[in-house]
Automatic annotation (TrEMBL), chains A, B:
Name used for this protein in its record: Globin-sensor domain-containing protein
Organism whose genome encodes this protein: Jeongeupia chitinilytica
Entries under InterPro entries matching the protein: Globin-like_sf (IPR009050), Globin-sensor_dom (IPR044398), Globin/Proto (IPR012292), Protoglobin (IPR012102)
Family matches, as Pfam families: Protoglobin
Domain Globin-sensor intervals: 43-215
UniProt lineage: Bacteria, Pseudomonadati, Pseudomonadota, Betaproteobacteria, Neisseriales
Amino acid sequence: MQLLQAILPRLSFGVVAAEAARQATPGYNYGHATLARAPYSLADLAALQKALLFGDDDVLALRQSAAILADQTDAILDVWYGFVASTPELVVFFGNTRTGEPDPAYLEAVRKRFAHWILDTAEARYDQTWLDYQYEIGLRHSKFKKNRTDGVQSTAQVNFRYIPALTIPITTTLRPFLAQKGASANDVERMHAAWVKSVLLQAILWSQPYVREGEF
Amino acid sequence: MQLLQAILPRLSFGVVAAEAARQATPGYNYGHATLARAPYSLADLAALQKALLFGDDDVLALRQSAAILADQTDAILDVWYGFVASTPELVVFFGNTRTGEPDPAYLEAVRKRFAHWILDTAEARYDQTWLDYQYEIGLRHSKFKKNRTDGVQSTAQVNFRYIPALTIPITTTLRPFLAQKGASANDVERMHAAWVKSVLLQAILWSQPYVREGEF
């Protein structure tokens, strides 16, 4: 094992370690057979990517960001959680409906999965497994499944309007982290633009459970 | 009047001319008393702007873009219409359901209002009148009012998913036009970021008619 660690590139070892951490995270069901099949197809995804000008260069830019972000997820989440905590309109969705206060255990459980989401987004696998997990994430924000994963008593839903909106704070605050490891200004710009498209794409997929039958 | 023209700054004269053109455009009902009141309030708007990190500097940046874009709207629309025409997934929403072909009169009628929309967005007035018109625009994309303004036979709706998605092509293709009049790279970046936020904000408001009761 010592030899294995010595000869594997640092990134590959990081990926193996990250995968073990993912599987140990409560509620992180990416790839689980229990997940429902997404109500949108890979062809729908391809059409949406076209409308978003999302191309092969964006996939490469996202994957370039994976190695840059891998050891920064905690610092990124500190910034994101700071923003949510200081915005009453958002922190309410983490509120315990009995105490009226934010639920620390709920915040922490979501935070662990959020760290994996950063790397999932950067890894940019757009296959059926990924699509099905996007649907699950959407359900968990909506009244269909919110609170159930973590067994909490909180608001019935995250209101639709905030889901696409969060594209902006997430990608704006990410930008300095993309620049932390010496990438050129042009590459930081490419990675940032790819992140904006990918997060907006996901926010659209997550919105499906909120949209009236036949209108998505 | 000659004296008046001489002493008024060019921009003010442009605004007066633009206002006359707006009022002469069929279906451009901004500020009309016939419009329904938006189902979201100015307080809802302020909360959404906060979640989008949309601040006073974005308002200034949008207004800076107004003078830059004022005489470029036709060229911008050539690019946008070129993108729609070359994307079957989008041009279908301009299709005549009897012929199966894009309807040139429909495309042209929307284009005239689209030019005003560019300047409306750049002028960044976020009042009740603006809010009510955003609601009207949303209705006109959805099955509630699509085709009615122009008396056309076309698809029943623009599917929800494409509304937030269009934030990207609109703002990506706008960027070179923001740089056309000698603004600094930093100002172009500020204006572009403000446009992304504003278009996404509008796309969220336009989505309201698609979202299930009580979930917006």
